[in-house]
Every structure is written in structure tokens, then in C-alpha cells.
Specification:
Layout lengths: L12 H8 L3 H35 L6 H28 L1 H20 L4 H15 L2 H12 L2 H30 L4 H13 L1 H9 L6 H6 L3 H15 L26 H24 L2 H7 L4 H28 L2 H21 L3 H29 L5 H23 L7 H21 L20
Helix pairs in contact: 2-3, 2-5, 2-6, 2-7, 2-8, 2-9, 3-4, 3-5, 3-6, 3-17, 4-5, 4-6, 4-8, 4-9, 6-16, 6-17, 7-8, 7-14, 7-16, 12-16, 12-17, 12-18, 13-14, 14-15, 14-16, 15-16, 15-18, 16-17
């Protein structure tokens, strides 16, 4: 009598994703998420470009409280949206939020273009921010959970690099519209056209399945297997015919879960990094068009300069994508933040237009490289049951900083340039120290699927 072969061991999701390999599915997911990320960049940054026209249309004084409110409204919405949508995606799944946030972003973006007054415009921008605030935690969790371990860091930086494309697009669009319309009319076209890429992104997202990790964590093994089978078909590979290894039942997930055990240290340090980097980045770049305008540049030249600075972001991302896999996430993040701190002081010392442009380009290069490394590092530090909750929380800290940054950045226009840039430099330096204190390198590591033990690394 011949003994039957023992059943093959259950397959962990990480191992399944690694076996299915990198192929058309991941590249398509990158293009789809990247398109939406570029559209979000346009939505986040366009008020800086639209503000001169809005001020002309509604008679707003330069640096006024109303102008600052308009710049802050989108970020305030993102603050609320990041926490809400991130928590919801861990409870009901990634895909529903993946679709809903993009659809709502388009609707509210178009409403802003038609706003009859400042109050309605501020409300529309708040709601737009609330919608797009959810794309950050969900898109990065989806990308991290579908990409093989060896490629995960690079793909997360590649996704963040679409921010530069959105920045280039909004600068080019603002420049083009300024040649056809008076400023008091051009801003409506800018807001309306910036909302339209989201329509394409929404249609493209309909073909993406939910994350198999999220499905398995919620007890839906058959749906998780079907999601992996779709990856296999797209990549021309085969999913082994064995059960998927289900993670142990997770406790009820609340935002308080992020502050238990080893997660507490990671959450606090990451929150400080996201806050400091965001306060400096948006404090500089949300007011930069108005600052350049105040230095005597005509509006077309301001937009051309902004376009050049956006182009400087691209090599920052390219280098970050290389470094996160060669030297690691933590070292790359800390290095870029240190260069950003130095760049802020060089900007302060710039005494000629060429020096201002050069130091601004250095800041643009370094800051966006730091963002790329941070977006690769953060989702790998949170386990699956709280990944989008964690991403939502730390990104909400960035949005809190973004709400404050226009008020701080307004000092650029009111003669306190040294105070503002010293603060921004200090923010980048503190963020660098926090990045080093995390003390964990995730390069080449499997994504954690269970909550970390109290004494975990």
C-alpha cells in the first residue's frame, strides 16, 4: 500500500505575491494609481497658482487672512479625510475607498470651479481635500500589498514620483491659461481642468481587485485567492493550488491600536517626520508663486519658474528609487532630509535671481526625494490590519502641518524671510533625527501581517 503524499504547506500572501512575480499587473496598477496621484498633486498645489487670479476676482489683499484660508481649506479637508478614509479602508476593504475617494474628488473639484464667492470656494476646497485625503493611505497600501518584496521600495517611490508629473502639469496648465485669459477668469478654468484627470483614473480603477491581504485579514479567503489569480493571469504565471495562510484573528482595530506596544514608538516618530516635512514643504511651495510675484516677476515668468522647479523634482525621485534599494529606506530618508535642511539656509542666503532659482531647485530636488523615501518606508512599518489606519494617521499629521503652513509661509511675503526659513530648516533637521531614531530597516523584508509584539523590533 502506497502512502499518500502529505498536503502542501499553506502559502503566505507575501510568498504568493513573490511567486507571481513582477509583471503587467503591477505596472498597470502603478500607472492607474500614479495618474490619480498626479491629479491629487494638481488639486493640492493649484490654489498656490490660482490665488493671484482669485485675489484679483474677489479683491483679496496679498497675505490676507482670507487668502490664507483658501490655501488652508484643501489641507484641512485632507486632515479629516486621511484619518477617516484610512480607518474605513482597514474595516471594509481597500477597493471601495479606492473608488469612492476619486469619484468625490472630481465632483467637489468641479464645484469649486463654479463657486460664486469666497465662502463657497473655501467649502468646495475643504470637501475636495476630504476626498483626496483618502487616496494617500489607500493607494500606498494597495501598491505595497501587490508588489513583490524585491521591487516594493522602488515601486512606492515610483508612485510618489507621479507627484512631480502633477506639479509639472499644474504649472504648465496655469502658465498656458495665463496667456489666454485674464487672471480673474483663468483660475476657474484651472480648477475645472485640474479635476478632469480624476475621471480617467476612476474608470481605470474599476478593473483593480481588492488587496488579497486585506481580504484575507477579514476572513475572505476565496476572494483573496481570486484577487491573486487575477494577478497570475495578467502576469502569465500560475498560483499554486494550495490554501492561503490566514493570519491569526486581529483584535478590534481602532486608532488607539497605533499607540500600543512597539507601534507606539514608530507611530510617534513617523508622525513627527510627516509633520515636519510637510510644514516646511508646503510652507515654501504654497507661497512660492506669490513670493516670486512679490519680487517683481510677471505672472508668466512665475509659472515658468515654477515649472522648472517641478522638473527638478524628477531626478530627486529617480535617485531615491535607486537608493532605497541600495542603501535602505532609513538612510535615504535621513540623507534627503539633511540636504533639505541645508537647502533652506542656502535659499535664505541667495542674493540674486539666479541664486534663488538654484537654491529653490536644490530644495525641490531634496524635498521630493525625501517624500519618495518616506512613502516607501511608512507602509512597510505598519502591519496589514492597521496599515491604512497608520498611513491615514501619519498623513493626517502632514495635513495638520499643511493647514498651519500657509500662515507660516505668509512670513515670506511680510519681510520675515529669515524666521520662516529657520523654522523650515529646523523642521527638516528634527525630521531627520526622528527618521534615524526609528531604528528599523525594512529593505528586503516581508510585510508584517500581524500586530507586532510588545517587545518587537
Amino acid at each position: 500500500m502506497t502512502a499518500s503524499a502529505p498536503p502542501e504547506k499553506a502559502l503566505a500572501v507575501d510568498d504568493a505575491v513573490d511567486r507571481l512575480g513582477l509583471g503587467p499587473f503591477q505596472w498597470r496598477l502603478l500607472a492607474i494609481c500614479g495618474l490619480t496621484w498626479a491629479a491629487d498633486a494638481m488639486e493640492v498645489l493649484l490654489m498656490g497658482f490660482a490665488l493671484p487670479g482669485i485675489s484679483a476676482a474677489f479683491g483679496l489683499a496679498r497675505g490676507s487672512a482670507t487668502a490664507t484660508l483658501l490655501l488652508s481649506a484643501t489641507f484641512a479637508g485632507m486632515l479629516v479625510g486621511a484619518m477617516f478614509w484610512g480607518w474605513l479602508a482597514d474595516r471594509i476593504g481597500r477597493r471601495t475607498v479606492f473608488l469612492a475617494t476619486v469619484a468625490l474628488g472630481v465632483v467637489f473639484g468641479l464645484l469649486g470651479a463654479a463657486a460664486p464667492g469666497v465662502t463657497w470656494l473655501a467649502l468646495a476646497r475643504f470637501l475636495t481635500g476630504f476626498a483626496i485625503g483618502g487616496t494617500l493611505p489607500v493607494d500606498y497600501a494597495m501598491m505595497a500589498e501587490f508588489v513583490p518584496t524585491a521591487w516594493r521600495g522602488r515601486f512606492l517611490v515610483y508612485l510618489e514620483s507621479f507627484w512631480a508629473l502633477g506639479t509639472v502639469a499644474v504649472a504648465a496648465l496655469a502658465w498656458g491659461l495665463s496667456t489666454y485669459f485674464e487672471p480673474g477668469q483663468a483660475w476657474r478654468w484651472l480648477l475645472g481642468l485640474a479635476a478632469l484627470p480624476g475621471v480617467v483614473g476612476l474608470v481605470a480603477r474599476l478593473g483593480i481587485p481588492d488587496s488579497p491581504r486585506s481580504l484575507l485579514a477579514r476572513g475572505r479567503e476565496a476572494a483573496a485567492r481570486e484577487a491573486l489569480s487575477r494577478v497570475a493571469r495578467a502576469n502569465g504565471t500560475t498560483l499554486p493550488d494550495v490554501p492561503l495562510l490566514a493570519p491569526p484573528p486581529a483584535p478590534r482595530i481602532t486608532p488607539a491600536t497605533l499607540f500600543g506596544g512597539v507601534l507606539a514608538r514608530r507611530t510617534v516618530l513617523l508622525a513627527l517626520i510627516w509633520f515636519g516635512l510637510s510644514l516646511g514643504y508646503y510652507g515654501l511651495f504654497s507661497w512660492l508663486p506669490s513670493y516670486l510675484r512679490a519680487q517683481g516677476l510677471e505672472l508668466g515668468a512665475v509659472y515658468r519658474t515654477s515649472l522648472l522647479l517641478a522638473l527638478a523634482q524628477i531626478p530627486g525621485y529617480v535617485l531615491a528609487a535607486y537608493l532605497v534599494e541600495q542603501v535602505g529606506r532609513r538612510a535615504t530618508l535621513v540623507g534627503y532630509l539633511a540636504v533639505s535642511a541645508l537647502g533652506a539656509y542656502l535659499f535664505l542666503l541667495a542674493g540674486t535671481p539666479n541664486a534663488v532659482l538654484a537654491t529653490s531647485a536644490l530644495l525641490s530636488f531634496a524635498l521630493l526625494g525625501a517624500w519618495g523615501a518616506l512613502y516607501a518606508y511608512t507602509p512597510e512599518l505598519f502591519p496589514t490590519p492597521v496599515r491604512t489606519t497608520g498611513m491615514g494617521f501619519v498623513s493626517s499629521m502632514a495635513r495638520l502641518a499643511s493647514v498651519l503652513s500657509p500662515s507660516v509661509g505668509a512670513m515670506l511675503l511680510t519681510g520675515r524671510l529669515g524666521v520662516a526659513l529657520t523654522l523650515f530648516s529646523a523642521c527638516f533637521a528634527v525630521a531627520a533625527v526622528c527618521g534615524w531614531l526609528i531604528g528599523v530597516e525594512t529593505r528586503g523584508q516581508k510585510l508584517p501581517d500581524t500586530l507586532l509584539p510588545e517587545n518587537g523590533a
